[in-house]
Amino acid sequence: MASSCSCNTVNFKAASFHPNKPLAPTPSHLLPTSKPSQLASISLRLNQNPLQTTHFRKSKAVPGFQVVASGQKGEPLRVMISGAPASGKGTQCELITKKYNLVHIAAGDLLRAEVAAGTENGKRAKEFMEMGKLVPNEIVVMMVKERLAQQDSQENGWLLDGYPRSESQATALKKFGFVPDIFILLEVPEEILVERVVGRRLDPVTGKIYHLTYSPPETEEIAARLTQRFDDTEEKVKLRLLTHNSNVESVLSLYEDQIVKVDGTLPKEEVFSEIDSVLTELLTKKGAAVGSLAA
User: Fold this and answer.
1) Which CATH number fits the domain that encloses residue 102?
2) Contact at 8 Å (CB) between 160 and 148?
3) What pLDDT does residue 287 have?
4) For the chain, what is the mean pLDDT?
């Protein structure tokens, strides 16, 4: 794995957050002892159209709650979130982004957008992708660092989705001064994750994702044409989970004061309620701290 890049750094001291209630420890079978895999690097190929994904995601009002602009109450929120495949992380990122008006940054989306835009980092990444190689950590770290430093991220706050994936990536971001106020870890037992993934089916006509148990197709006609993605088999999902868990294990020690573990087996509304409660309390504390300094 490539080492983190070295350059002049700006250090900020992030506010630590300690939840009031005790949190269940991570089940041992979810945290293997293997060292972080080289797969912690971003692996993308040019046959993935970078124009299909945009990392600049504007927030829209969502029925049921009021949009909160974190910058209006003091310092903006700085959030990292991690979750295994099928943990519901994507849904929670969407809900968090919409309510708190945070800039949603996903490394894979960012990489594809930079390649499509022909930026300096994008050109460097494209060279490796054309050779079928992993994009080195230092290139991805620079992309993420520059996105975090942009004005909208600094003013509105940011939600870093599924990144960093290794200790070296986390250390590099820390050297640049990017430390989260909170690190949300969605916990789901492996057997449930496997069930969620293996039961997924794709409608090749509409592109809609179904689940044989949780969201079955509406008609027999749709059911007859559903297909299973090649990487949604039990064997392959277990390999992906092993890689994910080893990568997460490698970064947890660096964020031990900011970690909040959330039960991802709950309905998505309850999962968001837990996250929302923690973020609201954190935002209130940050606003109070700014107010006391102003006084």
Assistant:
1) 3.40.50.300
2) yes
3) 78
4) 79
> 128 vs 44, 58, 173, 267, CA distance in Å?
9, 31, 22, 40
Question: Residue 57 domain-assigned?
Answer: yes
Token pair, residue 117, equals 């835009």
* Cα three-residue angle 45-50-151, rounded to 5 degrees: 125
Arithmetic mean of pLDDT, 124-142:
90
Per the DSSP assignment, residues forming a β-bridge with 51 are none
pLDDT tens-digit profile of 63-109?
A: 344 555 554 446 899 999 999 999 999 999 999 999 999 999 999 99
Residue 116 lies in a domain: yes
Written as one string, the DSSP assignment of 26-46 is PPGGGS--PPPPGGGSB---T
Q: For the chain, what is the radius of gyration of the CA atoms?
A: 20
Which ranges of the chain would DSSP assign to H, the alpha helix?
89-100, 107-117, 120-130, 137-148, 151-156, 167-175, 190-198, 220-225, 234-252, 268-294
Q: Which residues are catalytic?
A: 89, 165, 200, 229, 240
Q: Is residue 79 part of a domain?
A: yes
Q: Domain for residue 167, yes or no?
A: yes
Total number of domains constituting the chain:
1
- Contact residues for 198 (Cβ-Cβ < 8 A; gap 6+): 232, 233, 234, 237
Range of the domain at 123: 39-178
pLDDT surpassing 90 at residue 276: yes
Lowest mean pLDDT among 37-41, 212-216, 226-230: 37-41
Count of other CB atoms within 10 angstroms of residue 267: 9
Residue 211 has pLDDT above 60, yes or no: yes
- Cα 19 from chain centroid? 21
Among 67, 14, 40, 91, which residue's Cα sits nearest to residue 271? 91
